[in-house]
């Protein structure tokens, strides 16, 4: 493990650098010119719907899958020619908790630590430390089969962190978890980033990427179609907006007439649903503005909410842009 | 050396499973003992041997060999479970040598096989089985059994790697292991089977080992004529060797192909 810390100092710059990566399954291109650059020490979100190629990208970068063409470097090592070095410097947390269910949490971590080259004593010490870090110290000896989904996930992440990797890959770490489990995993990811580990996180949830990641790449059909900070991406089109539900007996156009967006954009109306949507690029201040105007006009809406764009909306907006 | 160390760490995991869930190996052993008693006590009375001899002395070496064959299921299931649960991928993401995962399986399953053989030896001796051959011949018989188990192990590794993620495929193999076990000289003499079926039975690798160890233990072979009756030892050494030559490279290829 000492060797790993030395490796870390040996290179700087990007922790992940992929260029023009292709991966085909028969005639289907799972990766079709995939490009990615992730700065060292950051959390990067890889966002996209099912089938966009997120897991294939993780497989290619972690040397689990051979790539057909293109180049990819992880922690300074080439995934094609220096697979062993890559594996020494990364941690992988796949889509399903890949820990031994019959064994206890501590036993699992000791096994993985020893497979990383640590001696038994060193592996025990490291296991204790990680169980503490991820809030599993009380369950250290229990069989993993008795763990909740969130606990399993955290143990899985601890296993990925066993060798202090330079880059940790988290493939949809919260899919299928209950809200409590999700919060716990988020806390774990934050704790990892605080230690300076670069994290590549794939997810289907914009909310998750928004909360954890400093930068995001959006994938579709095996390629990255947009990149930037969460704020930039959401601003691309489907930005924040205020939705006003028109009171019974009133018309959407009447309500809309009292509400002009701060940037002069006209609100959109949906007469059938009784809904008026006002763009709110500034978020909460715009909401307050809408409340003031409605109040001044003596309108009490049935419902009023500041809505953030969902991944679906951002994604649809981006793909629309692309086809134009 | 590194690969041995890594293999041992992975094998240790299975031995830890025994401690966590002791009823699983105990149930497996209970099943083997039950099968032994079914044949020895219920069916044994009506089974004749060409050339004479006690059925129990014929049956027990057969049971030992069948247990080695059935080990294929255990190996395949363990490999398949790891593939399905993502444990295989986790191993593959670690900086360990490629053969380590398979070697771990070999270490764990060969240990299990030794325990199974010990239990069957004890059970057999308790119900009247007698070894009349020399001690060194008996040791050679045990080595031949482990040799067969090693071959079955690699068949199991290959099947687990290739079919592991296919639901139903492992069940199909499990179902096929049974006819493979019975279409042999393990339980009944081929000379009392329909002619062609008896001939096919003698071609079964299981028959080679069963017949050879019967000779080594000084037990009746149930065979009066035929190639196998005369060359059982050669067949028992060759058959597993052939299987290993085929399935070790196939398994290595299947492991590499996970990257496709």
Tally of helical runs of chain B: 10
The chain pair forming the largest interface, with residue counts per chain, is: A-B, 31 and 24 residues
| Largest beta-sheet characterization of chain A | 6 strands, mixed
- Which quaternary structure do these chains form? heterodimer
CATH class wording of the largest domain in chain A: Alpha Beta
The general outline of chain B is globular
Number of strands of chain A: 14
Count of helical stretches of chain A: 12
Q: Span from first to last CA of chain A? A: 51 Å
Describe the structure.
The complex is a heterodimer of chains A (324) and B (260). Chain A is α/β, with parallel strands linked by helices. Chain A folds into 2 domains: 2-234, Rossmann fold; 240-307, 2-Layer Sandwich (Alpha-Beta Plaits). Chain A is 37% helix and 25% strand. In chain A, β9 (215-220) and β10 (223-228) form a beta hairpin. Chain A contains 12 helices and 14 strands. Chain A is globular. Chain A starts with a helix and ends with a helix. Chain A has a 6-stranded mixed sheet with strand order 6-7-8-3-9-10, with helices on both faces. A 4-stranded antiparallel sheet of chain A has the order 2-1-4-5, with helices on one face. By secondary structure, chain B is an all-alpha fold. Chain B has one domain. In chain B, 77% of the residues lie in helices and 0% in strands. Chain B has 10 helices and no strands. Chain B has helices at residues 2-20, 23-43, 55-84, 87-92, 99-126, 135-163, 169-182, 195-203, 205-217, 227-257. In chain B, α1 (2-20) packs across α5 (99-126). The longest helix of chain B is centred in the C-terminal third of the chain and has 31 residues, at 227-257. Chain B is globular, with a radius of gyration of 19 Å. The A-B interface holds A 62-66, 84, 87-88, 90-92, 94-104, 107, 111-112, 114-117, 143, 159 and B 6, 9-10, 12-13, 16-17, 20-21, 85-87, 89-96, 100, 258-260.
């Amino acid at each position: 493990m000492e060797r790993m810390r030395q490796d870390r100092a040996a290179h700087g710059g990007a922790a992940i650098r992929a260029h023009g990566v292709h991966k085909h399954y028969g005639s289907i291109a799972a990766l079709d010119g995939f490009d990615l650059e992730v700065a060292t020490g950051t959390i990067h979100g890889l966002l996209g719907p099912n089938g966009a190629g997120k897991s294939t990208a993780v497989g290619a970068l972690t040397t689990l899958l051979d790539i057909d063409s293109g180049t990819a470097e992880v922690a300074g090592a080439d995934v094609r020619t220096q697979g062993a070095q890559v594996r020494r410097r990364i941690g992988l947390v796949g889509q399903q908790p890949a820990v031994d269910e019959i064994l206890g949490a501590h036993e699992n971590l000791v096994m993985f630590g020893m497979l990383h080259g640590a001696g038994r004593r060193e592996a025990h010490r490291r296991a204790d430390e990680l169980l503490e870090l991820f809030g599993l110290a009380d369950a250290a000896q229990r069989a993993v089969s008795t763990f909740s989904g969130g606990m399993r996930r955290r143990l899985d992440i601890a296993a990925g962190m066993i060798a202090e990797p330079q880059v940790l890959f988290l493939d949809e770490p919260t899919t299928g978890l209950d809200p409590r489990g999700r919060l716990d995993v988020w806390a774990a990811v934050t704790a990892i980033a605080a230690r300076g580990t670069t994290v590549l996180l794939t997810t289907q949830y914009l909310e998750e990427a928004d909360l954890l990641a400093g930068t995001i790449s959006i994938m579709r059909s095996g390629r990255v179609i947009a990149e930037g900070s969460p704020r930039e991406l959401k601003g691309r089109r489907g930005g924040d907006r205020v939705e006003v539900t028109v009171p019974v007996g009133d018309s959407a156009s009447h309500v809309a007439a009292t509400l002009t967006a701060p940037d002069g954009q006209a609100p959109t109306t949906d007469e059938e649903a009784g809904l008026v949507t006002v763009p709110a690029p500034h978020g909460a201040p715009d909401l307050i503005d809408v409340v003031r105007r409605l109040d001044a006009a003596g309108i009490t809406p049935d419902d009023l909410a500041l809505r953030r764009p969902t991944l679906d909306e951002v994604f649809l907006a981006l793909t629309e842009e692309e086809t134009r | 050396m590194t690969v041995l160390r890594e293999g041992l760490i992975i094998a240790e995991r299975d031995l830890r499973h025994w401690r966590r869930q002791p009823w699983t190996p105990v149930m497996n052993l209970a099943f083997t003992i039950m099968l032994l008693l079914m044949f020895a006590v219920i069916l044994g009375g009506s089974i004749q041997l060409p050339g004479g001899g006690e059925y129990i002395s014929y049956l027990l070496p057969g049971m030992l060999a069948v247990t080695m064959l059935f080990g294929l299921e255990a190996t395949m299931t363990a490999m398949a479970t790891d593939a399905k649960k993502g444990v295989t991928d986790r191993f593959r993401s670690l900086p360990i040598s490629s053969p380590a995962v398979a070697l771990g399986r070999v270490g764990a399953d060969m240990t299990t096989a030794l325990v199974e053989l010990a239990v069957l030896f004890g059970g057999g001796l308790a119900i009247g089985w007698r070894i009349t051959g020399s001690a060194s011949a008996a040791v050679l018989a045990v080595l031949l059994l482990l040799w067969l188990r090693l071959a079955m192990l690699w068949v199991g590794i290959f099947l687990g790697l290739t079919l592991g993620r296919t639901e139903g495929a492992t069940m199909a193999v499990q179902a096929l292991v049974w006819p493979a076990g019975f279409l042999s000289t393990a339980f009944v003499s081929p000379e009392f089977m329909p002619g062609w079926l008896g001939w096919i039975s003698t071609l079964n690798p299981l028959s080679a080992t069963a017949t050879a160890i019967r000779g080594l233990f000084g037990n009746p072979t149930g065979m009066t004529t035929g190639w196998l009756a005369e060359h059982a030892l050669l067949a028992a050494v060759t058959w597993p060797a052939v299987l290993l030559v085929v399935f070790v490279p196939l398994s290595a290829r299947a492991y590499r192909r996970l990257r496709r």
